[in-house]
## 1
Amino acid sequence: MTLVLYTARYGTADPPNPRVFGGFDGCRRVLFTDRADLEAPPGVELVLDPLDGLDPARASRRAKLMPHRYFPEAEWSLWLDNKSRLLRPPEAVLAWARAQADAAFYAFPHFRRDCVYQEIRTCWENGLDDHRVLRERMRTYRAEGMPEHAGLIEGHFLLRRHGDAALVRFGERWFEHVLRFSRRDQVSFPYLAWKLGLDYALLPAEAWRETVEFTVFDRAARKADFPRRHLLYQRARRLYHRIRGR
């Protein structure tokens, strides 16, 4: 089966990550970027994709959320965030995922949260998006009756089967929400999955550490785009999770 690995690096928030594909070269590997000065690692295709008026965060979601537009010939695609690193051969990952469930979309559950309302609050506290946009999303979701603890995915690793009409429609709607509302795709995913009835598979949470390293950078010193909130509480929470080994 044809499988494409792809990632994106827009702007300068994170440095290049030559390890994102884990050194595996058995399938096509693609890097999307707005940076004309960026050099792709050996064997990796570089696709120059200008911002065209978008901020880097939203521009990076074009290919991430709509791979059907960029890889019409592929049977499968695997998205990896630039800050991640694949730890297992991609063909083995595909075979393993398909053995877990027959689905067109696979992702790992979030390693800490299972609720979009908690995710919205965390995004606000960490300055990941405009708090006014996030508050509007929370009000809208509650007004429409979206339940709490309805599930949350890790958006760093997304495996898709191409050619599924429902998934193509979902990807188009997903990107529309990123453009119109919060730039955080992990916020809009559970809402749209609930609204559109997306049938997707969650991979076993205990397997993520041997499949993908979610963050290869030290992001503690990264400057937030928006004001951070509740800093002392955040430090206490990080310590709590560190003690629990999460």
Note: Residues 3-108+153-222 form a domain with the Spore Coat Polysaccharide Biosynthesis Protein SpsA; Chain A fold (CATH 3.90.550.10).
## 2
Amino acid sequence: MAWKQATTDEIAEYYQDEFDEYFDQIPAFVRECQPKEVGVAFREAYPVKGDTVPGKQFVRRGAFGDDSSDFTQWTGDSGIKQFIKSPPANDPISGRHKLVSPELADAPSVPEAVYYGTDFHDRNWVLVVDIDAKDVALEYAKAAVDGDGEDAEESLKQRAGVIDAPPEGFPYRFEDLDQALEYGFEVKDYFESSLDTDATQVVYSGQGCHVYMYDPDPEYRYSEVPRRHIATILEEKKDIPIDTPVTTDESRVIRLPYSLHAGVSRVVTPIESPDFDYRSEAVPAVCDTPEATQ
């Protein structure tokens, strides 16, 4: 099967032709609330108006309640959706940090990745656990080969056969990605059984998964200390490799569900089972060639 980086043309076509259909499927706890920020990343630094201001490869923009932003809703001429489709053409800020109009820039204006802030204006922030296949692969490599604490991650993975296994050249195997999804549902079960909430969601992120707890009850407005406690339980007691700062930091941005993970040409997709077939079910139509699903 093809496991490849999307071209800029494919990214542009996805957001112009396919994203509208997915838009209404964005989980309600994101779309029906008011995230404080949205963010986009570019494949290469994109120029801004200020002559002495370096180009930006990543920008965060206030989404609501900020005088520097004219975003008042997800849709409409000034909505978040339009910003996602063409950030430079719909950049809400003014001044020397505003993105240059796409007609004046010698750089692709499509977003390499799209994010939203996990804190909101009108509700509690969400708690997110990020499980990346590359971290699962590292745990596998450490167990598979003899090494010490000074061995570089790439060296361990190379010796364990990770780099040469499908998908060749990536820092994980498909088995590690499958395991990441299994871990995601273990985290979901932990949230529901130990934290007494059913406001949870697992999302296939492209190269791993995100697990959300989004209960609006003030009881679940976790500060940094309980977040660290949760991260410690997952890492040390359940042996699940997670990206700890994603869980402990209240002001993170995370990939927007149904945005495109351009690094592997897959749609970021909410899932109901670890058996989700990301090789075929998450392929956008623009990349759905016969080679893409073999």
Note: Residues 174-194 form the longest helix (21 residues).
